[in-house]
Each structure stands twice: as structure tokens, then as C-alpha cells.
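_Per-residue structure_
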Amino acid sequence: MSKVQIKVNDNGSLRITGDVELLDGEGNVYTTKPSFSLCRCGQSNNKPFCDGSHKGNFESQVRVPKAE
């Protein structure tokens, strides 16, 4: 089984690739594709999925801290 990959996109969503099960707060399963994006900005009209509403309205460029 390959690893699931979660990519934090600059100024955008979390891109999920791989065989994962996405659940809501009550344990209900969302229907997903092998690759999908989750909203990180809170502006999507299709939460928890990203619908592109963040474009031009959200800034975040997260990087892994460099080891000292």
C-alpha cells in the first residue's frame, strides 16, 4: 500500500492523494475521488472540499522548519 500524501498548497487548499476515508464529525463517510482538495480558508461553498473561493482572498505559505 502506498503512502497517502497531503500537500499544503501555497495560498490554497490541502491536496489529498491516496486511499483515504474522509469522515464528518459524526462518523459519516464523504464520497471522495483518489485525489481531492480540502478547504483551508473557510470560504468554500462546498466544505469540507475546496471550490477555489480562496483565490486572491487567502494567503498562507507554510514551510517545514529547517533543522538547526
Q: What stands out?
A: The mean pLDDT is 95. Residues 10 and 62 are 7 Å apart (CA to CA).
